[in-house]
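[#protein-structures] MJ: dropping histidine kinase here for a structure pass
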Amino acid sequence: MPPFERPRILVVNDDHASLLALTSLLDLWAEELNYTVVSARSGHEALRQVLLHDFAVILLDVNMPGMNGFETAEAIQQHPRAAEIPIIFITAYQADEVARLQAYQRGAADFIFTPVIPQIMRAKVSVFVTMAQKNEELRRQTAALGQHTQELVDINERLTREMEERHAVERASHAKDEFLAMLGHELRNPLSAISSAASLLGMPAITTEIALRARGIVQRQTRQLSAIVDDLLDLSRAMSGKVVLARRPLDLGKLVETCLATYRATGRAGMHTLTDELDPAWVDGDPARIEQVVSNLVENALKYTPPGGVIEVSVQRIGDEAVLVVKDNGIGIAADLLPQVFDIFMQVSSALDRSQGGLGIGLSLVRRMVELHGGAIAVSSEGCGRGSVFTVRLPAIAPAETVQPARPARTPGARPSLLLIDDSDDGREMMALALRAQGYEVRQAGDGIRGIEAALADPPQVALIDIGLPGMDGYEVARRLRQDPATSGIKLIALTGYGLVKDQNRALEAGFDLHLVKPVTTDRLCAIIDELS
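AK: finished. structure tokens for histidine kinase:
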């Protein structure tokens, strides 16, 4: 803190001799009383001084030409900076009571009469100097207290932030633990069902009906496991900003119609009434990601709507937006949970029985995908048991002209020959059996070298190649097949558990025609093979 500034005393007198006498007298006590003396020879000069400096007291001569002492005092009092400065009038005569009242009304704090008695002047001046020093000390203490208070406020804010951060870490840790518990549950249930179905299929006395039911269980639970893995990978990519959208103009209404047709055809909405009102609404989007949004919202409605409930899906263009609405009359959402619906790992119910299933990441993924398309999603509910409404708004574009390319006719019953290269004996054998059941000629190889040898000996029309092969990986197999004229024309499909954009790019650079992420259903794989060949 800077040192104390010595209080100033302003002496105003038009007479040079009187001014010199007063300032000389005051200088005698300046060091003892710790003040500084400033002089002015007119009212105007006094005004300039009070605008530049603070003063402990002003000694002002009453009888001055031009602007007398009373007028000078009145002018000083009109300035906010100087309004509180005490003024001692110096006069050569005894003022009557009326004159004193007038002086006090114009700011007078006291009077000193000439001839000046030094002891009286010293006593009066010392009072105001001491007051100025006390005021300065008090001001400094107030400033120090304010600084200390601010330091305490800063410390309190820092401690509050640290507590909030610690609570956030604790909540995140708790959410992580709950998520891992849910993940274990969601993985073990399908695996248990698949294991039981596989054991059942291995029994010698199994009937055809039981075998069909067991196979259906394996297929459903495999789809469930695949969905869990896909959601985890998609959310990880979305949260890290690694999702690259393959945008193109598309009719949101048509896309939703196709998606709902799949639900109806597969019977996944068989226990609910699924209605739709779908108008044309064009957007610039990634069809796969938009379909993912629609599927997640419909799945969410199915999950939280009891059998017999109604799910309404609508698409329309409103102004510059394409609006998708998924409405259900299910269990609804409590008001306190509405702000958290799109949080990662959030579920409306977290009961121990986990009857609704899922990891609680679907809606978080939906929000991220919608935001990547420049849109927004909102949810509303009138409360528990009153259903919920999810509304997606995407930027609309003008309708695009769609021309379907002509597809070459395929010879009825013709199926391309296949070469399956995979080091997993069980996986390779099951895929080969499934493809042969669909009418394909399938040969197998357990590693890259034997796969290349098989391809050179009898080139297939399509080769399905696993990337994670021992010794020589799938990328190298593809490069070698492309380099050899005898095998360069084979259609190559990469099969891998890695689905990042960089993995797709790497597969295409190695010479693959297509990159597929495991697991792939037999129906989809057959459609892709037929389309590619």
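MJ: nice. Residues 426 and 432 are 10 Å apart (CA to CA).
AK: one more thing. Residues 348-359, 403-410 have pLDDT under 50 and may be disordered.
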